[in-house]
């Protein structure tokens, strides 16, 4: 039986496997999708990725499909409403960070034209290929993710440390951290 090789982390659940096979590491350029990925990664902090993937549709519903202007206008009453929503992780600081970050992305759009142009400039608008042989080689953060985290914080973003930024970079294709034996490695370059 010929089994397709995949990154080891994707073999835990069918949901993670489907995400890995279709989305993880594929370059993303739309500001709404980048905002969604950034938001989901910050929500994952301290939790399993499976938990967040399970609640992704709940997040999409709760945050108006990650419409930046809509989310940026959320107020304290909306935060209280979201804290009652079982479709998402009910964590006040993370909810507030998503709203804050929407506001920050709108500011970045004014300055750079798009959040995509801003975030992709850090990799010279190219995917950085990891060439990792095993999951043990893949770092949790790098000097680049620390730099991006620092720059985002200067612009007012919250809940985005170097490890969260690194995971975001992996998810939206700024990095190709598929292991070299994974069937998605060549497709995500």
From TrEMBL:
GO terms for molecular function: DNA-3-methyladenine glycosylase activity. It holds the Pfam family Adenine_glyco. Transmembrane segments: none annotated. Its EC number is 3.2.2.20. Keywords: Glycosidase, Hydrolase. It is an enzyme of class 3 (hydrolase). This is DNA-3-methyladenine glycosylase I.
